Amino acid sequence: xxxxxxxxxxxxxxxxxxxxxxxxxxxxxxxxxxxxxxxxxxxxxxxxxxxxxxxxxxxxxxxxxxxxxxxxxxxxxxxxxxxxxxxxxxxxxxxxxxxxxxxxxxxxxxxxxxxxxxxxxxxxxxxxxxxxxxxxxxxxxxxxxxxxxxxxxxxxxxxxxxxxxxxxxxxxxxxxxxxxxxxxxxxxxxxxxxxxxxxxxxxxxxxxxxxxxxxxxxxxxxxxxxxxxxxxxxxxxxxxxxxxxxxxxxxxxxxxxxxxxxxxxxxxxxxxxxxxxxxxxxxxxxxxxxxxxxxxxxxxxxxxxxxxxxxxxxxxxxxxxxxxxxxxxxxxxxxxxxxxxxxxxxxxxxxxxxxxxxxxxxxxxxxxxxxxxxxxxxxxxxxxxxxxxxxxxxxxxxxxxxxxxxxxxxxxxxxxxxxxxxxxxxxxxxxxxxxxxxxxxxxxxxxxxxxxxxxxxxxxxxxxxxxxxxxxxxxxxxxxxxxxxxxxxxxxxxxxxxxxxxxxxxxxxxxxxxxxxxxxxxxxxxxxxxxxxxxxxxxxxxxxxxxxxxxxxxxxxxxxxxxxxxxxxxxxxxxxxxxxxxxxxxxxxxxxxxxxxxxxxxxxxxxxxxxxxxxxxxxxxxxxxxxxxxxxxxxxxxxxxxxxxxxxxxxxxxxxxxxxxxxxxxxxxxxxxxxxxxxxxxxxxxxxxxxxxxxxxxxxxxxxxxxxxxxxxxxxxxxx
Length: 720
Description:
There is one protein chain. 37% of the residues lie in helices and 14% in strands. The strands form 5 sheets. Strands 6, 15, 16, 17, 18, 19, 20, 21, 22 and 23 form a 10-stranded mixed beta sheet that branches. Strands 7-8-9-10-11-12-13-14 form an 8-stranded parallel beta sheet. InterPro entries: Ala_racemase/Decarboxylase_C, Arg_decrbxlase, De-COase2_CS, De-COase2_N, De-COase2_pyr-phos_BS, Orn/DAP/Arg_de-COase, PLP-binding_barrel. One of its GO terms (molecular function) is arginine decarboxylase activity.
């Protein structure tokens, strides 16, 4: 049997590794491989090269997309800098310590929460809000602008009660308000602003019916600074009629449909054919209608929206300048204009590239954004000799994205499938091959001896396809097919120079927790939150728990199709009880509101963490377990209580001796989250009784006692 050989020109490092690979990992000569030799991708010196947290920070671009709120600390863990660039060293929060505190069992001082987990940092939220305010204040002062900035938070970005309440509280010193786009959003905004600054704006956007407008007018009666923004021409008549019926004088705004268009994915709502807003002629008709009703003085705000993630200040200035012209014309027509609402669009840099040519990035910071807005409005107003308006923005994504981190576990990884050459049995391969397939093998061998990699791969692929056809016809056994597959994979890896990405199973539903990745291809930074002082040795893709082929993450920042990861090794020394945690960052906007319950995987656990002066630099101030199996079943109109009773009676009928413990187990299942638990975290052991696995012995004995209660016990008696 001839020796089969191919040339490996260089070992290709995982994405971003090239800068840090020590030594020369190339193999200078052809590597013959037969049953007794195995190709090696890198030298021992290269594998053992010194790796530091700084290398990981650069590899995962943490300093590019994460600054000034996220960094890699000396322990190799992700650190949170709650106050941004002014955070002192002792104020940094080690994210792994937070995760450990939250996930440890209550018996050892933890909170016992299950993954996945959202960790909120209100200090980061407050810092983002203050930074936005400071950016506009600086631009206003430096340009001699004669009014002020007064922002609102669009609650659609994240309607969580505590997020909205924190924004109202943190924004109260500078009159920060809220924006609502539906009736329930308006109700929650009205409630939250009762504790806010009385001058804070309550901007009512979205399509409206009589009930919506009545609610907004009621808010005005409740002394909330409410503005009804007209999205459709028909809404003006409703406002006029209801104003008369309710005897309240409204403040009215209108949304203009600009000609300026944002060409990226997020610009679909902009331009003349956008979904929202009034055209020039519609604006003129609304002005005429208000004038005829004696309510033109109520028109005080102009709103527009170029689109989310505005990529550059050039586009921003173009749109704001156009809107300022419309504003000045409304002043000329007699409207009592006071506010220009520039909408959303303040973007964030998801991939750290600071590029104006990508939906994942923007080419400016807060200061440049504010300066461009102020300048565009000031120039038009000065030219038209009109008073400078109050500037309002609806910058939701930029406010909430950074403060929330999704943490999830890798539960397992697919083992490497590529065999070594000594594992491939050449005689086995040759058994049963057709004449054409044998010819392909000899041609493959000849090409390998000549180091003709392209021809080698051609005949390898042809050989594999012939063998697949033989297998389908029943003339080739599964052992021979497996050997051919192994040979093909080995050749591909050796000639290609790198291993294929391995699949890591993660305890997560992409559809629930990262819906934008699945729906619009939005990419978020993902990083192991620990072991960053170790060199990642694996290129991986992430597969979630759902029974759906779309439930995988195989696109990452930087255009990469894999993520550098560490081996899952309980003795790695860097993990927590052998666990491996990953974090998804910059996902605080939209993901929670848009997430569904595909496969009945519900929402994650949520904790709120504040910086403190204690020994760990943090305090967990709020903790909420994720949705239980009962919760998600109830959301789909099932009745968990009745389901439990049905199954309990079934257990009593068919499992007489084990009925009590089986019923207890069922109750636990209804109360527990739908996600997986590692054996080390759940209390299952090999203790077996009649083929059924129970909890630890003390839990089992307690269950026997507890489940021996009266027959009218409730389904929820067994708390998870």
